[in-house]
Amino acid sequence: MDARIEASPGVEAGSSGAGALDEAAGIRARILDKLTYSVGKDPLAASARDWFVATALTVRDKMVERWIAGVNETKRTGRKRVYYLSLEFLIGRLLLDALTNMEMVEPTRAALAGLGVDLEDLRDVEPDAALGNGGLGRLAACFMESMATLSIAAYGYGIRYDHGLFRQRIKNGRQQEYPEDWLSFGNPWEFQRPEIYYEIGFGGRIEAEHRQDGTLKHTWRPAETVEALAYDTPIPGWRGRQINTLRLWSARSPDPLRLDKFNSGDHFGALMDQVRAESISKVLYPSDSTPAGEELRLRQEYFFASASLQDLVNRHLRQNGDLHSLPDKVAIQLNDTHPAIAITELMRILVDWRNLGWAEAWNITRATFSYTNHTLLPEALETWPVPLMERLLPRHMQIIYLINAIHLDQSSKLPGSTGERLAAISLIEEGHGRRVRMGHLAFLGSHKINGVSKLHTDLMKETVFRELDLVLPGKITNKTNGITFRRWLKEANPGLTALLMEVAGDRLLDDPMLLEKVAHVAGDASFQERYAAIRLVNKAALAKLVRRQLGIDIDPGALFDVQIKRIHEYKRQILNLLETIAVYDAIRAEPMRDWIPRVKIFAGKAAASYTTAKLTIQLANDVARIVNSDPTVRDLLKVVFLPNYNVSLAEKIIPAADLSEQISTAGMEASGTGNMKFALNGALTIGTLDGANVEIRDRVGAENIFIFGLTADEVEARRRHQGIDGREAIARSPKLAEVLEAVASGVFSPEEPDRYRGLADALTHHDYFMVTADFESYFETQRAVFRRWRDKPAWWRSAALNTANMGWFSSDRTIAEYAQDIWNVPVRQPGNG
User: Fold this and answer.
1) Catalytic residue at 454?
2) What GO MF annotations does this protein's record show (predicted)?
């Protein structure tokens, strides 16, 4: 066993004395070896990227031995495995993450320094693996790390997209989308597994024949076959005690070249099968606004679900012989509805391939699957047109019909059953064209369904799954999200981590609940001074980045007010912008008031086809252009939109934030995890009682968070009784009326005066997201933020208390709850043996 694993908890082993020098020398030798024999470069000719690859291969080698040992130990003991199916894994850069968890940061830094290379430069060379859209994908990455940290034998399954979430550029204030080519220089972390591939079928026909016992056997004859090829990335837990596998599937054609067509001169036609097959893993979330795009999305989801099911079933059969024991040895977690088709795929495998009876197959399936719901937005609960499903996945559509028929027959016999209830719980939605409800399928095919915050789970029972919960009670449970606090504290904010470890002890990174010790010194002046000084250093670093990227100078001493997340109407970046404009107007009208310097920082991507979200980005940039160039503002207000938001940019912004904007319409954000990352790093939250904001308030104390606006119940009541017309709220707020008139009349778009008129009209007449209703409350709460900022001891005490009370929001705690309540697998806490 590596000697560093035996080191005392919380101390990077070999980090001092002769041992550290020996370890650094050993790492230096291995890096040079990799540079020479794997990269093929002489040190004098090596680029920063060459050094990055050599360093990544060195730490990967360190992981492989434990990785293989862990796999063998799981086989030997026969312990239960968890399979986490997610269309997104927003893993970001892996170098520092791997070095941190393998406890190799400082010896590697020393080794590289001895070669004239700066580790920080190599961090910037690594591309972000943008295999996700936002919180859902980042959560999957956090969960993978925590499962390894808690010694849970786990696989993550997803798609190895050639191009992840698009690279965002801002041109003339507008978002421009470009391919994210993270694989253009190869990926040193992964292992291609050419021997592991599965055939995935589409289309075709169903053949039925009678077995000897008189039952029907169905055989699907696909018209098209695509191969799923496996790529494995090792995912180390904290201290490298367990290494788990992220297996991503890449699509390829079984026949990459039609030689007959090529030789006949049809050179393009000869490659069409290859192009069609590879399009499945080409791009994350292709637009589904066209029939072709919708079909590609469904092909993606079935492709990765089928490959993953075939893979885990084959593994189970090799080790256990039959599938009757599948629920005892396997837990499959569906991360949202994207992999829900896996339920019908397992039924197909059990019934068609393994000849199990329907009832037994269904019992095995339900006992194996569990489903995490991430949204109450109807448009995000996937549905697929029945004709598309029947054409693309004909056997699965048969299975869905039979599941639904049995489900409705059983439900019709329950007390209180009505035609309206049966229509509500049916897998087939009949209105506006027949569609398959994937959320309903995930609910029926799982033994547990969880929400991701207490509020979200409660609302799930009252809204999207109300009728299903009445028919099948007891399935819904809550598992509030968490974050990998080692990444979002130790890696993103090492200065603060060092200070916190002085207070909480060396075991802090093993046990985040030790953060509670920080509460005892939150009011101490010397602690506050050091805490504030660390924040100022982080703000200066962010100011430098802003200057380099945008040419805008911002004052590190100003209040950094930050909203970084996917651009969406329910997240209400527009509310933030309206308040920004109101303050801009007030500064110009009353220049002699004692204004607090403030920097409004925005970042986030809008879906390529989401017109309103893209218009919001343009408005943010137009407001920035006008405000930042107005000499009367005298740098009291700056507005910044940082392009191409990703994990690495978040790691720079979050430690520098003073105020965290979590201002979604109450009842619409499932949980949020950015709110946890900000609070962990000491930013105070301004937000609605939405998602995990509720639990953050309960933990940090109402006096240490700025809550405003309508509650979820009030939002629902207002929509029901008063509608979504914003005119009454606008009439009550002269400030808001003035701001909307400025936006609508082209004050911020003089070259195109009507650019935002439609946006202003929508807020006036169709304000579904309650922007106008919450504006005054938000504006006044921002003034409370200003008052607290002026009282620096009070501000820093609140900041420290936020940090002190974030330990509970560790993804280690979340995963431990999944393990106990849903998966039925044991865990081993970090630092305990």
Assistant:
1) no
2) glycogen phosphorylase activity; pyridoxal phosphate binding
